[in-house]
Amino acid sequence: MEDKKLNGSQSEGTQTSEILLKVKEAEARARLKIEEARQKTSSEIIREATEEASKLTEKILVEARNQAARIKTEARQQAEKEARAIKEKTEEEKKKLMEIASANFNQAVEKTTERLLQIIRERQF
User: Which secondary structure element, helix H or strand E, spans residue 11, and what is its range?
Assistant: First the structure.
C-alpha cells in the first residue's frame, strides 16, 4: 500500500513538474509575446511619429510659403503705392516748374521785345 502511495506521490510529483514546466513555458511564451508587442509597438510608434513629423513639416512649409507670398504681395503693393505717390509728387513739381518756366519765358519775351523796341526807337532818331 505504501508503494501505491509512493507511486501516487511520484505520479503527482511528475504531474506537478509537468504542470510547472508548462506554466514556465507559458510564461516564457507570454514574455516573448510581450517583448514582440513592445518592439512592434515601438516601431509602430516610431513610424507614426515619423509620419506625423512629415505631415507637420509639410504643413509648416505650406504655411511658410503662403506667408512668404502674402509678404511679397504686400511689399509689391506697398512699393506700387509709394511709386504712385512719388510719380504724383514729381508730376506736381513738373507742373509748377513748367508754370514758372512759362511765366519766366513770357517775361523774358516781353523784356526782349521791349529791349528790341527800344533799340529800334533809338536808331530811328
Answer: helix 2-124
Residue 56 counted as domain residue? yes
Give the type of residue at 19. Answer: I
Q: What is the DSSP string of 27-56?
A: HHHHHHHHHHHHHHHHHHHHHHHHHHHHHH
Does any domain span residue 104?
no
Chunked into runs of 10 residues, the chain (125 residues) has average pLDDT values of 52 79 87 82 82 92 94 96 97 94 88 90 80
Query: Is 79 part of any domain?
Result: yes
Supply the range of the domain harboring residue 2: 1-89
pLDDT of res. 20: 84
Per-residue pLDDT at 6: 47
**What is the count of structural domains for the chain?**
1
Whether 122 maps to a domain, the answer reads no
Q: Is the pTM of this model over 0.90?
A: no
How far is it, in rounded angstroms, from Cα 16 to Cα 109?
135
In degrees and rounded to multiples of 5, residue 85 shows phi and psi of -65, -40
